[in-house]
User: Which sequence fits this backbone?
């Protein structure tokens, strides 16, 4: 490399020493700067007077020395002229290109760049992680729409994305050409790769996708990603990224390895699916308690269940199987709305309990609250309908779910008999068991009918 003329008086310095002085004084800490710093040996022979840190909006950084400034950044911003053919080829092959120049006029972050004398282009080759292709294919199979938003040259980002197997890598756009929200809306739908995007444009792209009804997860590592990370439904940062990105992100990849994201998605789906399944059982008690309370208030009669009786149902029928089933793997795609799905799961069982209560109440109006066998019968019906809800949530059965359902069922009926005095119930008589045998299919028929009606109404 030839010497670089530093002043109009004729003072010169080798380019590698000039870059050494630049990396020694610059305050940037992004991936590109670290790569340059690793290549050029830091040199403290020149004393810097001022630094202008890199900005994703300006796309350049500078260090001011005695009577000149070294400027480094995107070639489009530094050279201002048509780039050489070999640099264009470098972009198209997926290389990252940094232009370095020297300015003799003052350089300020608040003002446009003065005339910059181009010195050199620095070409950086990004390495593709070995698991990148596998990770991208997984998300594509799972129906995740992938978007690549970068501040780098759009052609370079597209070429690199293509090498990594990024779906739709050939559909790219230079975001510096986007001027209004209408163009932003259209670009978000049409393109998969976005180059030369500013932090504000990244944020707007997230907002556009959310307005389209999508849940958006954003992965980033630098301060230029902060606005988008804050806007995303799920924000992901890497440990090697900036401190600010790690503070904002909801998930931090400690090994800085994006191949962990499929497992993150799986665990998220497991939690949501298992909570939805368990909540469908827990909501049965909530809904039928409200229904029975309203009936009791309207008819001015006591509530038919005691706290100790409900506590047994909470323990054996709801808590015990739900606790163990919550650890099961469930990688199914999350669909629907949580609250709506849970209510639709629980409402048929709650309706079944309400109807059974009304049937028993009407058939024995004068004796329901004084006859121990009738109260025991209703309590067993409530427990049975709760057991039906657990079987419905556990379907299709496997070894673990079968074990939980069998032990839950046996445990409940055994507790009704063994702890009847504690539960304020009676040991079921032969007549009670006969009526119970008739009430069980009735409760099941009511539950299935209510479920069918709700499903038809929901269109599922």
Assistant:
């Amino acid at each position: 490399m030839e010497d670089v003329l530093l002043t109009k008086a004729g003072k010169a310095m080798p380019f590698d020493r000039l870059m050494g002085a630049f990396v020694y004084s610059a305050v940037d800490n992004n991936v590109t700067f670290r790569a340059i710093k690793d290549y050029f040996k830091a040199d403290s022979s020149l004393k810097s007077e001022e630094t202008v840190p890199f900005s994703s909006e300006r796309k350049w950084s500078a260090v001011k020395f005695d009577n000149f400034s070294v400027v480094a950044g995107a070639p489009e911003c530094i050279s201002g002229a048509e780039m050489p053919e070999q640099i264009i080829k470098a972009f198209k092959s997926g290389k990252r290109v940094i232009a370095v120049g020297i300015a003799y006029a003052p350089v300020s972050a608040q003002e446009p760049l003065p005339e910059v004398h181009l010195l050199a282009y620095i070409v950086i080759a990004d390495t593709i992680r070995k698991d990148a292709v596998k990770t991208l294919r997984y998300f594509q199979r799972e129906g995740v729409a992938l978007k690549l938003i970068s501040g780098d040259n759009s052609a370079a980002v597209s070429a690199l994305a293509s090498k990594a197997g990024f779906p739709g890598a050939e559909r790219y756009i230079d975001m510096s050409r986007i001027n209004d929200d209408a163009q932003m809306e259209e670009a978000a739908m049409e393109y998969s790769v976005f180059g030369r995007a500013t932090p504000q444009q990244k944020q707007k792209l997230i907002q556009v996708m959310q307005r389209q009804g999508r849940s958006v997860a954003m992965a980033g590592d630098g301060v230029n990603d902060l606005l988008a990370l804050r806007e995303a439904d799920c924000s992901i940062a890497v440990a090697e990224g900036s401190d600010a990105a790690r503070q904002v992100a909801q998930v931090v990849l400690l090994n800085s390895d994006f191949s962990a994201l499929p497992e993150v998605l799986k665990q998220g789906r497991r939690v949501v699916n298992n909570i939805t399944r368990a909540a469908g059982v827990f909501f049965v008690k909530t809904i039928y308690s409200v229904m029975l309370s309203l009936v009791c208030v309207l008819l001015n009669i006591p509530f038919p269940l005691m706290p100790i009786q409900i506590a047994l149902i909470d323990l054996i029928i709801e808590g015990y199987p739900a606790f163990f089933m919550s650890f099961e793997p469930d990688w199914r795609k999350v669909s629907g709305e949580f609250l709506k799905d849970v209510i639709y799961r629980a409402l048929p069982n709650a309706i079944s309990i309400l109807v059974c209560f009304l049937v028993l109440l009407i058939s024995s109006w004068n004796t329901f609250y004084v006859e121990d066998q009738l109260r025991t019968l209703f309590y067993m019906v409530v427990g049975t309908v709760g057991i039906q809800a657990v079987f419905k949530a556990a379907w299709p059965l496997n070894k673990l779910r079968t074990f939980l359902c069998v032990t839950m069922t046996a445990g409940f009926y055994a507790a009704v008999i063994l702890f009847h005095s504690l539960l304020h119930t009676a040991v079921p008589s032969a007549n009670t068991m006969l009526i119970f045998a008739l009430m069980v299919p009735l409760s099941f028929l009511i539950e299935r009918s209510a479920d069918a009606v709700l499903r038809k109404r929901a269109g599922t």
